[in-house]
Amino acid sequence: MRQEWIKKRSGVVTQMHFARKGVITEEMAYVAEVEKLDPELIRSEIA
Fold first, then answer.
1. How buried is residue 35: exposed, middle or buried, by Cβ count under 10 Å (0-12/13-18/19+)?
2. What is the pTM of this model?
3. CA 37 from chain center: how many Å?
4. Rounded CA gap, 19 and 43, in Å?
């Protein structure tokens, strides 16, 4: 499962990098779903 996620990535970029650019990643969306929170809240807390 993890290898499929990694294949989609281009280089090493952190979640913070995406969050600061305003991008909600699959990982952020997953956490938001599990925690029953708004994905934007997760993104803003990471940034």
1. exposed
2. 0.77
3. 13
4. 5
CB half-sphere exposure, 41, CA atoms < 13 A: 8
Contacts 24+ apart (CB under 8 A), 24-27: none
| 44/4 Cα distance (integer angstroms) | 26
Closest C-alpha among 39, 46, 45 to residue 16: 46
Angle (CA) 18 42 29, round 5° = 75
Residue carrying structure tokens 């281009």: 10
- The confidence score (pLDDT) of residue 11 equals 72
Read off the pLDDT band of 18 (50, 70, 90). very high
